[in-house]
Amino acid sequence: MTRALLLAGLCLGACASAFGSEQKISADQFAPANLSSLQCDYRLELTDARDDAAAGSMGNENMTFADATAVVSQRLAAARWSSEPTAPLASVQIKRLYVNSLWASRGGVAVYRVDLAGRAPFLIRAQPRKTGDSASVENANARMGEALDEANQSLVSFLNQQCRA
């Protein structure tokens, strides 16, 4: 009986340390956004359509992206969205935001669903890859910022193409 309790205690201790701590991803952890401006007026409607705030793990750190709407909105603000009610609406749903911690393809992943009036909805997926980075929280935040910037630039570039059409 004593042996069983000792083994159970060791297992509990090992299991608790394997999960590590939780790191919340927030806007202040990223470098300033590098984003082109919109060339015509669009209004932005941004919603978080993810199942939960989990954003992967890096080493023993479990990453969460609790306020993704605020982070993405802050980074998209550099594009200079219109507040005019007559401007076309770009409805953007955040579908996925996470850090891929596999060594061969370590990086952030951002997936948006975009709805524009008169067009079929489409997905924007960004996954810039880096290899050889250490599995640190700082690198995870940097990679997530790169994924957000790539997805946001893809969105703005697409909308700018529509201005010319």
Describe the structure.
This protein is of the alpha/beta class and 165 residues long. The chain has 3 helices and 7 strands, in the order H-E-E-E-E-H-E-E-E-H. The chain has helices spanning 2-19, 68-76, 137-164; strands spanning 22-24, 43-48, 54-58, 61-64, 89-100, 107-116, 122-126. The protein has a 4-stranded mixed sheet with strand order 2-5-6-7. The chain is elongated and about 50 Å long. The N and C termini lie far apart (77 Å). Mean pLDDT is 77; it is low at 4-19.
Query: Which percent range describes the beta-strand content?
Result: 25-35%
Strand order of the largest sheet: 2-5-6-7
Mean pLDDT equals: 77
Radius of gyration: 20 Å
The percentage helix is 25-40%
Task: Please summarize the sheet with the most strands.
Answer: 4 strands, mixed
- Can you tell me the overall shape? elongated
The secondary-structure element order is: HEEEEHEEEH
How many DSSP-defined strands? 7
Helix segment count?
A: 3
Through-space gap between termini: 77 Å
Given as residue ranges, the uncertain stretches (5+ residues, pLDDT < 50) are 4-19
Coarse structural class: alpha/beta
Walk me through the topology:
Elements: H1 2-19, E1 22-24, E2 43-48, E3 54-58, E4 61-64, H2 68-76, E5 89-100, E6 107-116, E7 122-126, H3 137-164
Parallel strand pairs: 1-4, 2-5
Antiparallel strand pairs: 3-4, 5-6, 6-7
